[in-house]
Recover the amino acids of this structure.
């Protein structure tokens, strides 16, 4: 990054409101990298308010979620995800068409199906068992297990 990290003004607290809103993807990443480096070098506390969860995920060690003037969560992003996301997303690609006996709902909730690709929502508790069964029982060409996106967790917090 070509921006100087030295300046005569080094605040102890830096307040940022939606610092990457409206920027293209490359500029967003440059701003995030700069803020991480600035925070690391200057030991400045950065207070970030944002509706853009990618900024929150990449920049914040601690998250405070406020609704109606009340703090409803205060902790790490990791703990937030663990506390509020009770499922994971499984993406499957079949090697050939699968019509199957009893459908795919025995492995989780089908949230998308398009040709040979399927997306399932599966309980975290059942994830190991479900993926093992899928690999044994289905014509799986590719399988990935993903965390729920932080936007979904925040939506769950605010909608109940």
């Amino acid at each position: 990054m070509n921006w100087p990290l030295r300046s005569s003004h080094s605040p102890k607290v830096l307040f940022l409101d939606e610092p990457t809103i409206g920027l293209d993807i490359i500029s967003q990443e440059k701003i995030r990298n700069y803020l991480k480096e600035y925070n690391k070098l200057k030991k400045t506390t950065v207070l970030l308010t944002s509706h853009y969860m990618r900024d929150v995920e990449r920049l914040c060690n601690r998250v405070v979620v406020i609704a109606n003037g009340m703090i409803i969560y205060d902790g790490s992003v990791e703990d937030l995800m663990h506390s509020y996301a009770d499922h994971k997303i499984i993406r499957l690609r079949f090697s050939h068409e699968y019509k199957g006996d009893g459908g795919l709902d025995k492995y989780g909730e089908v949230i998308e199906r398009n040709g040979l690709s399927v997306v399932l929502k599966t309980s975290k508790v059942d994830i190991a068992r479900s993926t093992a069964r899928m690999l044994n029982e289905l014509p799986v060409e590719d399988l990935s297990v993903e965390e729920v996106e932080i936007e979904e967790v925040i939506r769950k917090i605010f909608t109940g």
